Amino acid sequence: MTTQLLLIQALNGLQYGVLLFLVAAGLTLVFGVMDFINLAHGVQYMLGAYLGASFAALSGSFWAGLALALPATLLAGLALEWLVFRHLYARDHLAQVLATFGVILVLNEGARAIWGSAPLQVPMPEALSGGIQLMPGLNYPVYRLAILAAGLGTAALLWLLVERTRVGALVRAGAANAPMVAALGVDIHRLFMLVFGCGAMLAGFAGVMAAPILSVEPGMGDSVLITAFVVIVIGGIGSVRGAFLGAVLVGLVETLGRALLPDLLRLVLAPSPARQAGAALGSMLVYLAMALVLALRPRGLFPARAG
């Protein structure tokens, strides 16, 4: 593999990682603060992509679609919290898993009924089309760099919110000991709603940003949800910093693994078996990394601490 191709794959891994972080950040806060397993978090990513695509088609502008999709996914997250999730807080994890899995089925079928089963294509914003030369012989799509910049900017703002504000201190304290926060007089239900709404909006933002480079279709959030759970287990449940570093690690491991393993296996195997085995092993590397982290640090790399 050439140096240029390796750099492209590394950038692709970073871009994938920041998208994973946008999904995993809300998921880790919901799980850490509320001890609530929300399998329906992935459909909020899907909902953001569909809403962004619809608003962009109606307005003729990707940016208008993004601006309208963010408050819409926020409202959708708050509605789900009010209608479904708040009734499950006192239930055990099995009840939460079953109920939120039911929400997945309902929303996936609802998306299929409203938008159809055929994938939707979202045009890339013209201002971010084309490529930029990073070095001689290496052009990289501007839009993917914009995703990377937007994800890093969002991560920085979220870090400032969580680490430098009173609301963030409550969120961190809730992740460490939610009953104690409630005993101190904090309206824990309002805090839960805030976390749910922000998590849904972040997932929706990831869906809108991914829409021009991926197909928007029912069920698109399911695979992202599985990988996001891997991210928060590696990073540490309830930790925003852990979610970011875990997402970057997972993005790089998965992308570089899929790219490099076939070439490495060609040293000992014929090209066709090497390609097949490399693809299979590349998809396993993330889970092997998770198993290694859990063996060495069962609480993850950066578990949540009290604020």
From TrEMBL:
Topological relation to the membrane, as annotated: Multi-pass membrane protein
Pfam families recorded: BPD_transp_2
Main location as per UniProt: membrane
Keyword entries, A-Z: Amino-acid transport, Cell membrane, Membrane, Transmembrane, Transmembrane helix, Transport
Places the protein is found: Cell membrane
Transmembrane segments: 14-33, 68-85, 97-115, 142-162, 192-214, 226-253, 273-296
Family: Belongs to the binding-protein-dependent transport system permease family. LivHM subfamily.
Name listed for the protein in its UniProt record: Branched-chain amino acid ABC transporter permease
